[in-house]
Design goal:
Elements (H helix, E strand, L loop, with lengths): L8 E3 L7 H6 L3 E3 L23 E5 L12 H8 L6 E6 L17 E6 L4 H6 L3 E5 L2 H8 L4 E4 L7 H10 L3 E3 L5 H9 L2 H11 L6 H14 L1
Parallel strand pairs: 1-2, 3-4, 3-6, 4-5, 6-7, 7-8
């Protein structure tokens, strides 16, 4: 922000910006849903074998809130009836998740570390639970019912509220209630239908297209 007077344009990939901060920006700028830079992502989900219902969990590159220590246990104890398989995406700097609860014979857990094909995994999921960030928007671009949370306390509260107001996902505001909130969301099929409908009205690649167009004009 302090250097904005020396910039041609400031592109802020965030849904929420404090109004006082905006007054300090001395160049043209953009924020909001169209500021997210994503390529075109097709929703090519295939029906999973044996009617499996897959939940993919993205806890972040380093799992700063240590979800791997307790969330799998909490989800098993919550007995989410709509989930038969959990795929845990282990970030490159995160330790392998652990769980102590006796494995439910009807629930399969797969741990994948730093996959190169994350988008493909998201596309084949029935539900996604993810930290707020670019992965959350990748999940939404796949038109998958998604719950988003922040591992940083109240830091992302305004962005989570903005997402919820758009009605394109559900959010959990309190990480200690994450398993309960997830159960309520994943078992609410009516809400899934509404979210998918709203997602299909959006094109998450618009921001990237407009960014390329803007930079091209500045270079010519």
């Amino acid at each position: 922000i302090d250097l904005s007077a020396y910039l041609d344009y400031l592109w802020i990939p965030s849904l929420f910006i404090n109004q006082e901060t905006l007054k300090e920006i001395k160049c043209d700028y953009r924020f909001g849903l169209d500021s997210i830079l994503l390529p075109k992502i097709k929703n090519n989900k295939n029906k999973n074998s044996n009617n499996a219902k897959v939940l993919t969990i993205c806890s972040g590159a380093s799992d700063v809130s240590f979800l791997g220590d307790w969330l799998l246990d909490a989800l098993q104890q919550a007995e989410i009836k709509t989930v038969t398989k959990i795929i845990w995406i282990q970030g490159p700097y995160a330790k392998k998740p652990d769980f102590n609860t006796k494995m439910n014979r009807d629930l399969e857990i797969e741990i994948i570390k730093s996959p190169s094909n994350l988008i493909s995994i998201l596309q084949e999921s029935d539900f996604i639970l993810t930290v707020y960030g670019i992965t959350a928007f990748e999940a939404l671009a796949c038109n998958i019912p998604t719950m988003v949370f922040s591992p940083y306390g109240t830091k992302d509260r305004q962005n989570l509220t903005a997402l919820k107001d758009l009605a394109i996902c559900d959010v959990s505001m309190d990480i200690s209630m994450l398993a309960r909130d997830a159960k309520n969301f994943f078992e609410n099929s009516e809400k899934h239908t509404d979210i998918i409908y709203n997602l299909r009205q959006l094109d998450f690649s618009i921001g990237l297209s407009q960014f390329v167009e803007l930079v091209t004009k500045k270079l010519i």
